[in-house]
Structures are given as C-alpha cells and as structure tokens.
Amino acid sequence: MNRYGKHNLLHIIIMTVLQMPALLFMAANVSPDMEDSWTAFTLAILWISVVQFMQYLFAYTKHKHSEKDIKLIKDFLWLLFARSVVIVISLFIPGTGRILLTGFGFILSILGSSLFRKDMAMVPINMPHLIERLTLFTIITLGEMLMAAANFFELEKFSINSVLLMFQVVSLFLFYISEFDHAIEENLPCQSGAELIYKHYLIWFGLNICTIDLDYANDAMGIIRVIMMFLGLFLFYLGVLSNSQLNKKSHQLDKKIMIPFVLIYILGLGSSIVFQSNIPVAIALCTLTIILETVLFVTFVVRRFSKKIREEIICP
Questions:
Q1: pLDDT tens digit string along 58-96?
Q2: Predicted TM-score of the model (pTM)
C-alpha cells in the first residue's frame, strides 16, 4: 500500500494480485547463492516499483485539484522513477556491482522521502491509523522470528534452549505492544508520520538481525554472534523508546527507568561475551536480559496508569 492507498477493492486487488506474487517469488528465491536467479529477482523488484508508480499516477488523477497533494504525489513519482531507473541499469551490470546498485536503489527509496518531509507535513495523515498499520507489520516481523524459534521445537532439536528462545520472542512482543498499545497517546493529531515510519525501520532491522542470529541458536556462539544479537536488540529498543515523545504525559521516560534499563543491557552484553563459548549459558543470559528489560518497561507502563485502568489491563 502507498500513502494514498485506500481500503477498497481496487487497492486490495493491486496488492494481492499484482504485488503479492512478486513478493512471494522474491522470498522463495532468497539464498546465499543467488547468482542464477538474481535477474529474475531484480525484475520482481522492478515490477513492484512500476505498480507503485502506476498507483501514484492514479492518485494524481484523483487529487488534481489539490495543490498540496499534487506536489507530494510528484515527489513520490520522481522517487519511484529514480528507483526504477537504477534497478533497470543494474540489470546490465555483471557481478557484485548489480547487487550493490539494486541495494542503492532500495536505500534511495527509503531515505529519499526524507528530502521532502516538508511536503509530507503539508498533507498530514491519521496517526492512530498509521500506528495500527506499522504495528501490524511489526507483528508480522515478530511472526517470522517466532517461526525461526518454532524450528527448535522439533523432537530432535527440542531442549531448554527452545523454551528460552520462545521467551525471547514473547518478551519482545510484550515490550513493543506496551509502548504502542498502552503508553502512546491515543489521540495524536494528524502529522506527516515520517519520523514514526523511519524509527520503525530501526525496529524491523533489529528484529530481522535477531531472527538471523536465532536461526543459528544451536551453533557455536562466538563474539560475532553475541554482538549481532545485542546489536539487533539495541536497534529494536532504540526504535521503540525513541517514540516516547508521542507518549501520554504520564508515560514520558525519565532517569528512573532509563538508568536501570541501560545497566541491564550493558550487564547482559558483558556477561554474554564472557560466556560466549558456552551456548546454553549465553542463550540463558541473553534471554534473561530481554525478560528483565521487558519486565522493567511493562511495570513502568502499568504503574503510570490509575488503579482502575491497571486492573483492566492486568485482568479485564
């Protein structure tokens, strides 16, 4: 869906019939060695870009009497056009160069919209609706992490580590939902939404890094894997907590929560590095860190509500 997407039959068909097959093709062909399938993979990316471009052209015809909308739509059209051109050029470049150029096209489309944030602010969007969409996407990302953890519940792989990995996923979900379902202000005024979207990139990147690390949970840890896991956690926590300015006045972060929060993270990282060669201990320490951070934050969120609301949250 794009910024001007509507919940109607036309946009549902565009998303499911035109875009979803391309996404499924891309997902099915991701592998360490993509040399043979890279051209087809890139064409699928190009197809999605073209479909999005056509969606914005359609939006242009629907908003041609609104100068603010037309200016913003033109910005997105130029951005999508630039991404499509870069991807087309990458098709004719051999080797690693085409992968780097395709990646540049993606980064361009992600960061490029920051160049016209003023135009986006002129056409504000419904913040609660945007938060709902971002939350759903985050739940999907957590679902991917849950599926990675589910692999360790097969009989030949099941152990205490399997349970600990599940606790990691559940704790991260509770941490996220405590912020965006309880702590955040429910009646936010319409805004550009750009800052909220970019901060969610940190959340998604962090969760994906944690998911990659989780896939190799039974392999030797090592300093690289420990740093990788805690880097993912750092990005996730940074993305969630940096939205605290959107919280209710009663739920603004302060030193009382941030100091112990940072200390738990540092102690967890340090102890995991010390016991990096012992897989069960390292996993247990990482899980304990995530659980403690979640308990600390959830307690902070719940205690800031009145007694009546606390009772409804804990036991409705």
A1: 888 888 788 888 888 888 889 889 989 999 998 888 877
A2: 0.80
| C-alpha–C-alpha distance, residues 144 and 133, integer Å | 17
Q: Smallest Cα–Cα separation from 71: which of 86, 59, 85, 53?
A: 59
249 touches 243 (CB < 8 A):
no
**Residue 84 · residue 50 · CB < 8 Å:** yes
Rounded to 10 deg, the angle between the 307-314 and 279-303 helix axes is 140
Q: How many whole angstroms separate alpha carbon 2 and alpha carbon 52?
A: 7
What is the CB neighbour count within 10 angstroms for residue 108?
A: 14
Q: How many CB atoms neighbour CB 36 within 10 A?
A: 10
Q: How many residues are present in the chain?
A: 316
149 within 8 A of 267, measured Cβ to Cβ: no
Alpha-carbon distances, residue 263 vs 12, 57, 173, 175, 270 (angstroms): 46, 51, 21, 17, 10
Residue 103: DSSP 8-state: H
